[in-house]
């Protein structure tokens, strides 16, 4: 131990280089974890709070309905089955209808989403997203539209639009609806296509007193996209409890493009980790190998004086271990510190095309960072393990030196 520390202090520049080879990959990996975790959480929150919930109960499609969801004529039997399933935190009935929205000579294809406003308040921030006018109430006969649709149809609060319902399993319905509010959508696609109204108003458009297209559920204990095991457990219980004719879909089933993004992010992180760890290992091997070369005569003298080869190998590995532990600790400290600093300043705002692209895929244009302690420990532990494996080669070479040849070595 003393010999290892003495040699580290004697070659401070090389020791610092080795420490940085361990510190920098850990720091970068923690920062990448922070950004990717935040992006995944943003996609999860915007999808599950505004659109899909954690799970949805839908009617099994028995005939082609195009872009429309199959109609549930009366969801009473499915709602009754929920009482026997544990873990359901919240549920609400929703009716989504394809429709044509017309204002003057301007027409757009939209989806009319009928909701129970008071029921979605506990989990949705829709009321806070209204930037003009007000949100819906249970008795409301008006609609709220996204900023994007309002711009396309040149709408303002107080204007009227004509809605023509076109669900293939419902009667053709038409109605005039006043614009009571304009909201900021989490995704630009939603802002262009979704017209929100009360469930009663949507049912009048469908000419049905009890119709629905889905029962939207939130599951107790699910906080992010990594809680798939909990969702699978409750989904299996629901499938067993529901009467025939229903199916259960989770949030990733309902928005497959988000599943595609999530499937890309994890391999991307693994590739970057492999690159950083590989570069760090090469630096560790190089610096320790040079250290052994410089100390060839010293190591030969130690062996000639009767020291065992295992002790020589241990001396080199001890030096590597001290530097590796220090690098892992400070790398984790710097990485977590960056995450905390970014969050303390409210994130990193994006602008221009980058901000628009992020909004298109349901991610906030302000980059936040969040990291779990398990990820910090994994990053530090993995890099420390790679560094120690890299240190084994120069340590093994030092232990195999022949004493007499080593003492005659000239650099």
Q: Which helices and strands, and how do they pair?
A:
Elements: H1 2-10, H2 12-50, E1 55-59, H3 76-82, E2 88-103, E3 106-115, H4 117-120, H5 126-129, E4 130-133, E5 143-146, H6 147-153, E6 160-165, E7 173-183, H7 188-193, E8 194-198, H8 199-206, E9 214-219, H9 228-241, E10 246-250, H10 251-254, H11 256-294, H12 296-304, H13 309-344, E11 348-349, H14 352-360, E12 366-367, H15 373-399, H16 403-407
Parallel strand pairs: 3-8, 5-7
Antiparallel strand pairs: 1-9, 1-10, 2-3, 2-6, 2-9, 4-7, 5-8, 6-7, 11-12
The description of the largest β-sheet is: 6 strands, mixed, barrel
Q: List low-confidence stretches.
A: none
Distance separating the two termini: 26 Å
Number of strands: 12
Question: How many H/I helices?
Answer: 16
Name the helicity range.
Answer: 55-70%
pLDDT averaged over residues: 82
Number of domains as seen in the coordinates: 2
């Amino acid at each position: 131990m003393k010999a290892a520390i003495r040699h580290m202090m004697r070659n401070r520049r090389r020791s610092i280089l080795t420490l940085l080879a361990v510190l920098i990959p850990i720091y970068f990996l923690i920062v990448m974890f922070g950004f990717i975790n935040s992006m995944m959480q943003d996609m999860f929150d915007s999808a599950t709070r505004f659109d899909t919930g954690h799970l949805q109960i839908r009617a099994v499609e028995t005939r082609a309905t195009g872009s429309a969801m199959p109609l549930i004529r009366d969801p009473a039997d499915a709602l009754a089955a929920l009482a026997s399933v544990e873990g359901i935190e919240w549920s609400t009935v929703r009716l989504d209808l394809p429709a044509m929205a017309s204002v003057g000579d301007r027409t757009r294809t939209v989806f009319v989403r009928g909701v129970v406003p008071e029921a979605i308040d506990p989990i949705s921030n829709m009321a806070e997203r209204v930037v003009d006018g007000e949100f819906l109430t249970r008795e409301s006969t008006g609609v709220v539209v996204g900023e994007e649709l309002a711009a396309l149809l040149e709408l303002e609060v107080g204007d009227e639009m004509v809605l023509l319902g076109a669900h293939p399993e419902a009667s053709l319905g038409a109605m005039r609806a006043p614009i009571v509010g304009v909201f900021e959508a989490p995704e630009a696609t939603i802002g262009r296509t979704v017209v929100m109204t009360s469930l009663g108003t949507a049912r009048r458009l469908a000419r049905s007193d009890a119709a629905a297209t889905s029962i939207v559920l939130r599951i107790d204990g699910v906080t992010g996209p990594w809680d798939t095991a909990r969702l699978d457990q409750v989904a299996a219980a629901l499938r067993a409890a529901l009467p025939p004719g229903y199916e259960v879909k989770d949030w990733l089933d309902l928005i497959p493009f988000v599943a595609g993004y999530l499937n890309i992010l994890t391999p991307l992180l693994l590739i970057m980790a492999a690159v950083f760890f590989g570069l760090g290992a090469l630096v560790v091997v190089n610096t320790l190998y040079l250290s052994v070369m410089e100390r060839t005569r010293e190591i030969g003298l130690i062996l000639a004086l009767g020291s065992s080869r295992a002790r020589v190998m241990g001396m080199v590995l001890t030096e590597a271990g001290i530097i590796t532990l220090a690098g892992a600790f400070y790398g984790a400290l710097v990485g977590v510190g960056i995450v905390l600093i970014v969050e303390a300043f409210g994130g990193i705002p994006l602008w221009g095309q980058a901000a628009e692209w992020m909004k298109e895929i349901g991610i906030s244009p302000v980059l936040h960072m969040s990291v779990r302690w398990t990820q910090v420990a994994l990053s530090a532990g993995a890099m420390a393990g790679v560094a120690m494996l890299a240190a084994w080669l120069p340590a093994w070479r030092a232990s195999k030196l022949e004493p007499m040849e080593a003492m005659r070595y000239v650099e």
